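Lecture 7 notes: from sequence to structure.

We start with a single chain of 193 residues. Read the sequence below before looking at the structure.
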Amino acid sequence: MKLITTTVLFVFLMAGVATAQHANIGIKGGLNAYTVSNDNNSDNDFKLGFNLGLLGHFHITDQFALQPEIVFSTQGAKFTEAGTDFNLNLNYINIPVLLQYMFDNGFRLQAGPQVGILASANLEANNNSLDVSEDFESLDLGLSVGFSYVNPESNFGYDLRYNHGLSNINASNNVNAYNRGIQLGVFYLFNHK
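Now the structure, written as tokens:
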């Protein structure tokens, strides 16, 4: 139900963006390197994954733009406990809203809040998988910062960002846990101006 509500809200937001001056809609995809940072100093390794979604891009002024997105993102962490290797798989629907400063050469600096909705969570070890969704909060609030580049002739662009989770995602015990990750992506803007 949360996913349906979020999707409907995003569609209405995109419809509003599409009617704005200098508005674009695009698609994006890329690679993730995520981990879960704990405040108990346990060591978690980065887990590789992917992201795929839609974006809206519209100019506020000649130098500033707003870019809302809706992205499916595979996240999580790898760790070893008692000699056993574990993969924590956390899948999110992320909704960042980025404010961008646009340079004349196609480069953009960007930052903004991100809301993540947990779609699924499982823990894998020794070819076994366990659903651990109840151990994690359904919402993840974070901050996203990075830069991107768009080539006006091809409408393709590149994106690199760091996502810093601000809310504790651990619902099962007293240890605080936060999503931390890097995303590298490619995007295409339809009818880019």
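The helical segments are 2-19. Keep this in mind for problem set 3.
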